[in-house]
Amino acid sequence: MTSYQRVLIGVTTPFLFISVSPLMAQEATQPVGQQPPEAEPQFNVQSMAEYGGVLTPRGRLILEPEFQYSHESINRMTFEGVSVLSTLLIGVFTAQDVDRDNYTASLTGRLGVTDRLELEMKVPYVYRDENERVNVPIEDGEDGVFSLDRELSGDSLGDIELAAHYQLNRGQNGMPFFIGNLRYKTTTGNGPFDIDRNSEGNPLELSTGTGFHSIEPSITMLLPSAPAVYFANLGYVFHLEDSVNQSLSNVNDDGGNPLNVVVGDVDPGDAVRLSFGMAYSINPRTSFTLGYKNDFIGKTKTDYVNVDTGTTTSVQSQTLNVGSLLLGWNYSLNPDVNINVGLELGITEDAPDTTLTFRMPIGMNVF
Questions:
Q1: Which positions make up the signal peptide (predicted)?
Q2: Any residues with CB less than 8 A from the CB of 25 and at least 6 apart, and which?
Q3: CA-based angle 102:107:112, to the nearest 5?
């Protein structure tokens, strides 16, 4: 089997892990002088994470332990005051330095129900750590700066995900493969409104889940062109609105009078997801991937209800643009075990700085 006949491709989250394996046609006895019919290769491309590939064969189970680390650093200078001239500012400068680290250990199972249908389940455990330091210049003080340090962490079961992938066509005669995907994310993790807070409403720990159900339909295209595979994915994430009904503490009006305010309905912004790239086989055991992914996340709408007056105030967040360059490397230890390392480099302001992922898919036949 040449390197053109077997391509094992690793791609970092959140798009694809691809394993392309043409099945060699068994030799059959043919009459003398008659050329055997040319066997058309069948590609088995395993799905992974949030997007799908050409599916796991029927009766094949893939168990995939995964460890992921991501880091985000925010350094921001803000000014509150007035500008008298272009060079004269009257007010207060505030310097904010935030470091966020996320550690996720998960186990993903993918089962080939038929040669065209695959079911998937992912169970993550999340640990998050955040260090924030805010510096405000003041006139009275030894250093002339007032510093506020805050350290938060949180760990628990994350949001369990369920997915189904269906191969829409056979990809013959040079046509690309098309795969329909449907992913559902639960709320088993601790959401932003599930964590402990102090009397002022400030969090005492970090959330490990989004706190809202989501449904993501998507479609994947794969175009084998030995020794490479080109891929693209387009999806839309529906975040379901929910009624939180959680009280806020120590909220006062402009006159300093306490208000009885609760968080009412929260509608998280939906997201459009796009990814594309190329996977290239170096030899029958080793391959690498280069790609790009971008999430366009809409505004989150939050309703605040004054219980005393019955008035509702709606507040919307800013949109987010999360774009990252993705690099992947895959090595096949044997036909059943692969090692996959992925690196994600954030290139937009809203993206994490770096995300490193290590996976080891292990395959077995169950029926």
A1: 1-25
A2: 39
A3: 140
Place of tokens 């030894």: 142
Residues in contact with 123: Cβ distance below 8 Å, sequence separation at least 6, in sequence order: 106, 107, 108, 157, 160
Structure tokens at 335: 């036909």
* CA–CA distance, 118 with 48 (Å, rounded to integer): 11
Q: What is the 8-class DSSP label of residue 5?
A: T
C-alpha to C-alpha distance for 103 and 97, rounded to whole angstroms: 20
Give percent helix, percent strand, percent coil of the chain, each to the nearest 5: 0, 60, 40
> pLDDT tens across 197-254, in order?
887 778 899 999 999 999 999 999 999 998 999 999 999 999 999 998 888 666 666 5
Secondary structure of residue 54 in the 3-state scheme: coil
Backbone angle region of 91, left / alpha / beta, with phi > 0 → left and psi within -120 to 50 → alpha: left
The residue count of the chain comes to 367
